[in-house]
Structure prediction request, 196 residues.
Amino acid sequence: MNEVIKTIYERRAVRKYNDLKINQDLLDLLLNAGRMAPSAMNKQPWKFYVITDEQLIHAFSKEISEIAIKEISHAKKDEVDKLNLSSYHMSTMTNLLKNTDHIFYHAPVVILITTLADEEWGGIDAGMCAQNIMLAAKSLGLDTCPVGLAKYINQAKDFYELNIPDTEKIQLAILVGYGDEDPILHERIEDNVVYI
Prediction:
């Protein structure tokens, strides 16, 4: 099988990491892969905030869990219904309540991807950038997990340490590390193509 296709098929969201550190050369390769993503009008609007301090990652993870629980518990019924709480989401909420590291999963590296808050296509551009990083990581023997709940990091008490300006919006976080699990491939939906 073509190596790119093989990498796409083998990439999984990994939520358990071992203690091995990632060297700077590998991190640079991942960030450069992200920079190669397409973007609307070639604006390349992304900015990367790379967190490698274990204590800071753990502190943010704990705070984000608490903030997410508060946000969801205060959400109106129609907002909660929109979340479509599947059994997976319910297990996520249960783990948040147990106060385990259910946000950053003890990953040694967390990459926050931001764009300008008013960037019309920022979310889409950041998503393409993130996919490049995750596929590059897999091809280099690393594992990743995209984390949407990281959006709550701006409410954490230590958020100021990241020096992210108010003009930027955190689009996504990517966890990077050497995985300590082998997640199964979930069944793929195949009746979602309409030929015109």
